[in-house]
Amino acid sequence: MKRTQQLIGIGAWMIATALLTGQACDTQSQNPTPTPDLAVAPDLATPPADLAVSRINKVTGGFEQPESIFWDSASSAWYVSNISLGAGAQLGTKDNKGWITRISADLKTVDHNWLGANNKLSTPAGIRISAGTLYVADIDQLVAVSVTNPTAAPVRSAAVPKAGTAPAILLNDVVVDGTSVLVTDTFGSRLIKFATPNVANNTGAVFGTMTNFKFPNGLFLDGTNLILVETEDFSMPNLQGKIYKMPVATGANPTQLGTFTGKFDGIEKDGTDYLISDNPSATVYRVNSTTGAQTKLYDFKVDGAMVAADIGYDPVMRRIGVPDLNGNTIYFYDLP
């Protein structure tokens, strides 16, 4: 595939290759401007808090196709995967150009060299941190990095072979269940489980009973349930993915949650609602975890985002991190 098609094909992360622009309509009133009543003092009341304080912060500069973001409360920092796909490169090319960025909690310190000069990745996608280890999906391997010693050599799994009929393999989002790690294989329409992810050259195995997901992407562990969201075919805007729920112990008999569909990417949880990003619309939705009913939380295109990739969430600050893969910017939104 061409590079443009490849970038579209990594979780709908580059579906919108051009930012849609609108034209503002500047109209003038046909009525004359009324003369103010100078005897009446103007209303200078303080605007409501929601209007007085912006809920959006942006961090930009130095990112290269940021795909996934994760908040780690233990180290009090955000972590971002950068694909850094060079001109003419293929998604499956092990070019060692990708990396992980660390952002301080106050968003003021950005370390693009957190892994050091030698620990390069190729197409780092979904990331999760558990018990001091950062797990990242990198094409056909699961890579485990020490959060306290990130420049040490990471632990890499054995390469996972692609599904028999799949055009390629693309390990995507990650969740941690105890000591095991589950990863979506987006092109392979399946889930892969790594039972011993901290052992060098450990092997992954196909997990669950369903191997015909439609471009499976985001994962979230909700108690005893595993929640999976699909993107569907990246190149077909009319095809929409679904939300599935299944027992994390077995992955048996996934059931669709509600009827809401989209080109979904990342998933987190706030209270009883899931927070799910729809990639090409750069929108995050609230989705009821019981009924699947959705409401629009925020449209990041209003603030200049081109897409919304794999989101992260700080439940204490109630802050969402949204990577704009196309715009090389991270958006942070504080929930009302």
Furnish the topology, listing elements before pairings:
Layout: H1 3-8, H2 49-52, E1 56-60, E2 66-72, E3 77-82, E4 99-104, E5 110-111, E6 124-130, E7 133-138, E8 141-146, E9 155-156, E10 171-177, E11 180-185, E12 190-194, E13 204-207, E14 216-222, E15 225-230, E16 243-247, E17 255-256, E18 264-270, E19 273-278, E20 283-288, E21 294-299, E22 312-314, E23 319-324, E24 329-334
Describe this structure in words.
- There is one protein chain.
- Mean pLDDT is 87; it is low at 1-9 and 11-52.
- The chain has a domain at 57-276: 6 Propeller (Neuraminidase).
- The strands form 6 sheets. It has a 4-stranded antiparallel beta sheet with strand order 1-24-23-22, with no helix packed on it. A 4-stranded antiparallel beta sheet has the order 2-3-4-5, with no helix packed on it.
- Strand 18 and strand 19 form a beta hairpin.
- It contains 2 helices and 24 strands.
- By secondary structure, it is an all-beta fold.
Kindly provide the name of the CATH class of the domain at 57-276: Mainly Beta
**Superfamily (CATH H level) name of the domain at 57-276:** TolB, C-terminal domain
Provide mean pLDDT, rounded.
Answer: 87
Task: Report on the biggest sheet.
Answer: 4 strands, antiparallel
